[in-house]
Specification:
The complex is a heterodimer. Chain A is of the alpha/beta class. Chain A has 15 helices and 15 strands. The longest helix of chain A is centred in the middle third of the chain and has 18 residues. The longest helix of chain B has 33 residues. In chain B, helix 4 packs across helix 6, helix 5 crosses helix 6 and helix 8 packs antiparallel against helix 10. The two termini of chain B are 19 Å apart. Classes of the chains: A alpha/beta, B mainly alpha. Chains A and B meet through helix 2 and helix 4 of A and helix 7 and helix 8 of B.
Chain lengths: 359, 255
């Protein structure tokens, strides 16, 4: 658990961060967001004191760490920034081992930890251990950056626009991976971004800042449906609020058993999956807007996974003109389906109380 | 694929470089030890000269004395230069940066002969005034490149180092110096090469070096002496330069 109490930063007599107080419970994913110059990055950097505090206190798991020597504090708090933050003269393994080395862990423990983290981020140690940052793609470098921040099992992980420098497709993959790592490690994370979609993808709590002040601190869905003021309402935007809500919903919340035989009598809803020997979907019979009896070959582009957001699932349905998507597990086996009617709310929760990712 | 092709090409280029370097080193050693064997050649080239081979001292002695001068003066330039460069890039010394840079630049604009002329009355003849002149002369490239090299370390890298809990000293030793090393070595390279050439004028104030036959040849109108001295100084400079080039390459990180 991390508590910020009245954090204030004054530059040249002007408060760039003013009296920001918030509590993030253990295991929460907190996102600081706001327009540029709102003080979100400064607030983050005050937590590990890269920016010295002008006022306020930081409580980490019950300890007041405001007066702790900065280096000691920083070794208890992971810190990840854009991929350029990797040490270019160190191999991947040594980059990841940065903080354990500073903490003087025995070599065998460091090696084990490096392997464990590389496995968590799907970086094959045999291939990547000895590579240098310039030999990595943007996405790989970013994974190494996050692995490095997690290496000494910190109490809190700080991330300062870590995915700002990678292309949109890589960014989505990294966000999905970040959700998984968060679920696996249960780490308390504070994440800065200016990208609302990224915040909605990741956050369990969003802190919206403006002009150095904390405007609203709440769960993502509450911020959308109960904005504290017009600024919050405008920042989240009204036009596609429905879509934004769907970006906070996950396919596994909507998925139902797959239809493996024709039975429904409702026109347009009757459909059936044909599987191969391994249980992978290969053909969809029916469920097309244009021709309900047509057989459609299943294509990788419109397959859904349980972790996919409903926004993305809907986008695929619309783009590929199918009424229902197959949901598959890691091996490609059909485990369920999610359909157009489902989006309107099989769970019929009115959009307020469900929708947090299972953690 | 392209990475493999590139590294294969680099490997080939490096091994070709190796060959050239080895040949030059062999030539340098052979000429230093066996200049006397070339006496018939110089006699044929300069039939008018009574003594076409410098013989007042062995070329090995001259070469060792020359290398000694360059080593000592370069050691001084490098120690002072890197220390000054480090000092003015730390928070405490930042305000001294313009002053140190211009002092070093002034050291560079003085002709070494003038520094020698000033140093002789203070330090006497021979080794010491030469060392003073060479050290001053070699200081600027070291200071400049130390400052420039430390300046090339990206801000984000430094922020990551601080954010991961490194102390100032750890950041300097583990991150800043290794990353700046290539540029710093390039500065040392320039400084040493300049000093290899400039050390010859030490002979005008009585310091033994490869400049001794050169100066003697100029004074006594003996072109053969000049060629013998110049040949060895030139070879020494080229070999040293190539050695530094390889050293620099070891500090290229994905550049």
């Amino acid at each position: 658990m991390i508590e910020l109490q009245g954090l204030t930063k004054t530059y040249a007599g002007k408060n760039v961060v003013e009296d920001v107080s918030m509590t993030l419970e253990t295991g929460e994913f907190g996102v600081l967001i706001g327009p540029s110059g709102c003080g979100k990055s400064t607030t983050l950097k005050m937590i590990n004191r890269l920016v010295p505090l002008s006022g306020g206190r930081i409580i980490l798991n019950g300890d007041d760490v405001t007066e702790l020597p900065a280096e000691q504090l920083r070794r208890r708090i992971g810190y990840a920034i854009q991929s350029t933050g990797l040490f270019p003269h160190w191999s991947v393994a040594r980059n990841i081992a940065t903080v354990p080395q500073l903490l003087k862990w025995p070599k065998s423990r460091i090696d084990d930890r490096v392997d464990e983290l590389m496995a968590m981020f799907h970086l094959d140690p045999a291939e990547f251990r000895h590579k240098y940052p310039h030999q990595l793609s943007g996405g790989q470098a970013q994974r190494v950056g996050v692995a490095r921040a997690l290496a000494a099992d910190p109490e809190v992980l700080l991330m300062d626009e870590p995915f700002g420098a990678v292309d949109p497709i890589t960014r989505e993959a990294l966000q999905a991976e970040m959700r998984r790592v968060h679920r696996q490690t249960g780490k308390t994370i504070v994440f800065v971004t200016h990208d609302m979609d990224e915040a909605l993808q990741l956050a369990t709590r969003i802190a919206l800042l403006n002009g150095g002040r904390l405007v609203q601190y709440d769960r993502p869905i509450e911020m959308m449906v109960k904005p504290a003021d017009d600024f919050v309402r405008e920042f989240f935007g009204q036009a596609d609020l429905g879509l934004k809500l769907l970006s906070r919903r996950w396919v596994h919340q909507y998925q139902r058993p797959p239809s493996l035989a024709h039975h429904a009598t409702l026109p347009g809803l009757d459909h059936c999956w044909r599987l191969d020997d391994a249980g992978r979907p290969i053909v969809l019979e029916g469920a097309r807007l244009d021709d309900q009896h047509r057989h459609t070959d299943v294509r990788a582009e419109w397959i859904a996974t349980p972790e996919m957001s409903m926004k993305e699932a809907l986008s695929r349905m619309v783009w590929y003109r199918v009424m229902v998507l197959p949901v598959v597990d890691e091996t490609g086996k059909l485990i369920g389906e999610v359909g157009m009617q489902g989006i309107m709310g099989i769970e019929s929760d009115g959009g307020l109380h469900a929708g947090e990712p299972a953690s | 694929m392209s990475g493999a092709a590139r590294s294969a090409r680099q490997l080939r280029a490096a091994s070709a470089g190796n060959g050239v370097l080895l040949i030059l080193i062999a030539l340098l050693i052979a000429l230093t030890l066996g200049m006397a064997q070339l006496e018939p050649l110089f006699r044929a080239l300069f039939p008018d000269l009574g003594n076409p081979l410098y013989a007042r001292d062995s070329f090995l002695n001259l070469m060792l004395a020359h290398i000694g001068l360059v080593l000592v003066s370069s050691l001084i330039s490098v120690t002072i230069g890197i220390a000054a460069g480090l000092f003015v890039t730390r928070p405490v010394g930042r305000e001294f940066e313009p002053m140190v840079s211009s002092l070093a630049a002034i050291g560079q604009t003085f002709p070494p002969a003038a520094v020698l002329a000033i140093a002789v009355p203070l330090a006497g003849f021979g080794f010491t005034p030469t060392i003073i002149a060479l050290s001053l002369y070699g200081l600027l490239p070291v200071i400049q490149n130390t400052i420039a090299g430390l300046g090339t370390v990206p801000q984000t890298t430094l922020e990551a180092a601080r954010g991961n809990g490194m102390s100032r000293w750890q950041i300097l030793r583990r991150v800043e110096l290794p990353l700046a090393m290539r540029v710093i070595i390039a500065g040392i390279r320039v400084s040493v090469i300049i000093n290899i050439g400039t050390a010859t004028i030490g002979s005008t104030v009585g310091a033994k070096s490869l400049g001794t036959p050169l100066i003697a040849g100029l004074v006594g109108n003996n072109l053969a002496y000049v060629i013998q001295g110049a040949l060895l100084v030139g070879l020494l400079a080229i070999v040293t330069d190539l050695l530094f080039e390889r050293l620099e390459r070891r500090y290229a990180f994905g550049g």
